[in-house]
Each structure stands twice: as C-alpha cells, then as structure tokens.
Specification:
Elements (H helix, E strand, L loop, with lengths): L5 E3 L6 H4 L2 H8 L6 E3 L59 E6 L5 H4 L1 H5 L8 E5 L3 E3 L2 E5 L6 H6 L4 H9 L14 H5 L2 H12 L5 E6 L3 E2 L1 H8 L9 E3 L1 E4 L2 E4 L5 E4 H9 L4 H4 L1 H5 L4 H11 L5 E2 L25 E2 L4 H14 L8 H9 L6 E3 L1 E2 L4 E5 L9 H10 L5 E5 L2 E5 L6 E2 L7 E4 L1 H8 L6
Parallel strand pairs: 3-4, 3-7, 4-6, 9-13
Antiparallel strand pairs: 1-2, 2-10, 5-6, 7-12, 8-14, 9-12, 10-11, 15-21, 16-20, 17-19, 18-19, 18-21
Helix pairs in contact: 8-13
The structure holds 2-acetamido-2-deoxy-beta-D-glucopyranose (4 copies).
Length: about 450
C-alpha cells in the first residue's frame, strides 16, 4: 500500500480553522510553498545521558510561575493528583527541559489558561511569551518583541496590532472585545526573539521545547524520548516543513533545541535575533526563521515526526506507518481537547511504557467509528470525483462502492457531486446542523488495523 509522501499542511487544518478561512484566505496565497514532508522515522541515536536528580527545585524568579512548593504534589483540595501512580523517577529529566509557550494577546485567554490546570502542574520549568507583558494570576507573560528595532516596529505595518496593544494597555481593554486583528502578520517576528530570550533567561537547561498555546505535550513520553539524546551536541528536532529551500521544524507541532545548539547560536552571539529581523520580514512564518537561523549555523533539522505530530486526535491520519510510534505532541488542541487528553494521559501514562498512536486510536477514534455518520467530515483526501459533469447524480452508495473496490481504502466521505476516499482512518468532526456531508468507514478494514500488535 502506498501513501502520499508529501502533504500540504494548510488544507489539512481543522474544520474549526477552516471556519476562519475567509480571514486567512489572503494569507494562504503566500503560503503555498509550506509543505510538510512525511516519511519514516529517522532519529540520531546518541549516547546515554547521565541520570539527573529527580528532586524538584524551586524555580528561579524569572520562571513564569513561582511554584508554591518544592514537590509536584497537588494541593489536597484537588480531587486527584497528576500522575499519582507515577514515581518521581518516572518523571526523571523534567528538570532538564525548559518548555516555552508562544502565544498572542488576542488568543491567550482562549488557549492558555487550560494549561495552568493541566500541563503546567507537572512541568517544573517553563516560560510564556506573547506580544505584550502581562500577568494571568501568578503567571507572568513576557513580551517577545520588546527587543525588536523600535524604528522598524513603528514603520512596518505588520506591527500595527503590536503598537495598538501597547497603546491600549493603560486603558485595560481586552483586545478580543476590541476585535483587534493582525495576530498572524505579527506572529512571524516573535519566534527568534522568543528563542534568544528563553535561552538568556535559563542558559543551563539541557533542552528547550518551543510550542504554541494550542499544542499538547505528552510529558512522560517526551522525557523518555529524550533519554538517548545528547544535549551537548547541536541538535534541532521537529516535524519538517519547507519554505524557500529551508527545512524547518513546524512551530505548532513543536521544535526542540539542545543546549549545544543554543550555545552555538545564541551563546556565542547574544544579539543574534537582531540579525534576523529582515529575514523575519521576508519570511512566511516564524518557525521558518528559526530553521534559517540554525541552517546558517550549520545545524540541520533532525526529523522527529510522527512523534512530533501536527494534528489533534480526531484528524491524525491513522495507518501502519505511525501505529507503534510514541506520541510526543498534538496540535490544534482546543482547551477542551487539552483537558480530554490530560485526563487520558493521567490515567494511562505508566512508568516504562510510552503512549503510542495505537493507544490514541483505541481511546479517541475507534469507539467513534460506525458504519456511517450524517453531517460529518471524515477528512478523506483522495478525490474520486468532484463536481464532474454527469456525476451529480452519483450517490452515497456509489461512493461506498468506490472505496470497497480499492483495497487500500478504509473510509470515504460523500456530499452531492463529491466523493473522497482515504487509506487513513480519521475520526473527523461533526459539522454544523444542516450540512449534507456524510461519512462512512469500512469497519472490517479499520478493525484490521487494530490487529497489529506493537512490541512493548
Ligand atoms: C533600527 O532600524 C533603523 C532603520 O532600519 C536603523 O537605522 C537603526 O540603526 C536600527 N537601530 C538599531 C538599534 O539597530
Ligand atoms: C486509559 O484509561 C481509561 C480510564 O480513564 C481506561 O478505561 C482505558 O482502558 C485506558 N487505556 C489504556 C490504553 O490503557
Ligand atoms: C446521471 O446523469 C447523466 C446525465 O446528467 C445521465 O447520462 C446518467 O444516465 C445518469 N445516471 C444515472 C445512474 O441516473
Ligand atoms: C479536511 C478536509 O480536507 N475536509 C474536506 C472534506 O471534504 C469536503 C468536501 O469535499 C472538503 O470541502 C473538506 O475540505
């Protein structure tokens, strides 16, 4: 069975994102060269790290949160304790990783707070960067663009939102209520300053993981994944995307940088971000600027997909290629998705065993698969026919037959005039009431997927 080796990221964005497509349409045109290169895993296997001290220290003042206690135990008023069945040594290595969230003032309150009660209850070191200095409770949010050339900020129209945010701050107006736009235009300028500031704030972390506010990290999986990697080497991991001939780690999927790489790039030149201001202005996106930065310093991206994964559980393309691989990240996670995944992880994370894609399938996808669903987008991608003359009278049954006749097909989607099939299995999403799209799965074939046992 053969799968497409290159897939476009943008058309695969979630339905929720597609709802905003009108706003984004103008921008999409500039992004047609933004590809994700899927393929088999290829990790550089490094020698074993010395085992680190599992006891958790009080973080320094520049941490985004001042931790109330020196242990990971939750206050007793909480119903459950995160990973209560895991021993501290199962989270060994937490001290070595700095987690960096990159967000923006217009989305922050929608996406970030859920992490305060989930992810960040067991991540001891992190920082949050946005486009304005602010606080959320005890959490300090840093303005990632403070150091950006002032004259340029005032002249470049991409900074319109940034200047508005700073001007409106004393007025205490929520940017969401004001309907401020321009978050996307501003975004690409943030990554490089976020990277250099994060390093200056904590230069002794072994690893720096950069994610967005709608990224979910499976923390115990990440720590295990890091165990055979050498932080002293200049390493840059991520899920490959490409722009202007530079392969870079896709930002929402998360990119991971070793201390060795940080020393090489920022340690030796603390003002390096300034040199990339022009690059940012001419780039599609901030994660590309990071790729260019490392490329210019001779550090190439090491492929970390499918473990570093750009989809939420409902649009992951399940097939054999990733079935037994550990999951490290999910992207496009709404706050409720983060909570769901957190509960699942809390129940299912075990000391010596990764949560793999097959586990996600079993918990999030398979229970949802029934023969057919009305008003449902199953994200099938291979076109069988679409609005072709004379095809408009073809039916759901014709579409199902097209899938059955193709031995690789596992699911299909039908809407009048259009039939799409797919070798992957995806749960997909319920559509707004009244939508006539209908999805079907060939259950004998989706069950066959489950028969593959993974080595444990
Ligand atoms: C900021 O940019 C302006 C215009 O490009 C330049 O003249 C100025 O030297 C820059 N300032 C700094 C501090 O780099
Ligand atoms: C995960 O935890 C749930 C309980 O929340 C349990 O029902 C399920 O069997 C577990 N899944 C796995 C793969 O262990
Ligand atoms: C579908 O429509 C085309 C022309 O619109 C016609 O030629 C064909 O016979 C129709 N097929 C069926 C199965 O009704
Ligand atoms: C995610 C995705 O590709 N969804 C598609 C499902 O099928 C409809 C109809 O063809 C497309 O419009 C969606 O884009």
């Amino acid at each position: 069975m053969s799968f497409p080796s290159r897939q476009i990221i943008l058309p695969k964005l979630t339905v929720r994102v597609i709802l905003y497509i009108c706003t984004a349409a103008a921008l999409l045109s500039g992004l047609t060269a933004y590809w994700s290169l899927q393929g088999p895993l290829k990790y550089t296997i490094e020698h074993e790290l010395p085992s680190s001290n599992p006891s958790f220290q009080r973080p320094t003042q520049q941490q985004s949160k001042i931790y109330p206690s020196t242990t990971l135990s939750a206050p007793s008023s909480k119903a459950t304790t995160p990973f209560s069945h895991l021993l501290p040594e199962d989270l060994e290595g937490s001290e070595d990783v700095e987690l960096i969230f990159k967000t923006g003032a217009t989305e922050l309150f929608d996406k970030l707070p859920v992490h305060f009660v989930t992810t960040l209850t067991h991540v001891p070191h992190y920082n949050i960067f946005s486009d304005i200095d602010q606080k959320v409770g005890d959490y300090v949010i840093h303005d990632s663009l403070k150091g950006y050339n002032r004259t340029v900020k005032e002249k470049n129209s991409d900074f319109k939102l940034y200047l508005e945010l700073q001007n409106d701050k004393p007025l205490r107006q929520d940017p969401k209520r004001l309907g401020l736009k321009g978050g996307w235009e501003l975004d690409k300028y943030k990554n490089i300053y976020t990277l250099s500031e994060a390093f200056k704030m904590r230069p002794d972390a072994k690893w720096y993981l950069f994610i967005d506010a709608d990224t979910y990290v499976m923390w115990p999986n990440l720590l295990r994944w890091l165990k055979d990697k050498d932080h002293k080497k200049p390493l840059y991991f991520g899920s490959p995307a490409m722009f202007k001939d530079v392969t870079f780690g896709h930002g929402g999927t998360g990119y991971l940088v070793s201390n060795g790489a940080m020393q090489e790039v920022v340690g030796k030149n603390p003002d390096v971000a300034k040199n990339y201001e022009d690059e940012a202005a001419n780039s599609c996106c901030g994660d590309h600027v990071i790729g260019k930065l490392f490329f210019d310093h001779g550090i190439e991206l090491t492929r970390a997909n499918p473990s570093f994964n750009g989809e939420p559980p409902y649009s992951v393309a399940f097939a054999m290629d990733r079935w037994c691989e550990p999951v490290v990240t999910f992207h496009h996670m709404l706050a409720s998705d983060v909570e769901d995944m957190w509960e699942f992880e809390r129940e299912n994370a075990t000391a010596n065993r990764d949560i793999i894609f097959a586990d996600i399938f079993a918990h999030f996808v398979e229970p949802q698969l029934i023969e057919e669903r009305e008003c449902w987008d199953n994200y099938s991608e291979n076109e069988r026919w679409e609005n072709v003359d004379g095809r408009s009278n073809l039916t759901y049954a014709d579409c199902k037959k097209a899938c059955e006749d193709d031995e690789d097909c596992r699911q299909f989607m039908f809407k009048k005039g259009s039939c799409k099939t797919s070798p992957y299995v995806k749960a997909g999403w319920k559509l707004p009431a009244g939508d006539t799209m209908k999805s079907g799965w060939l259950l004998d074939r989706t069950k066959a997927l489950r028969e593959k046992a993974c080595p444990r």
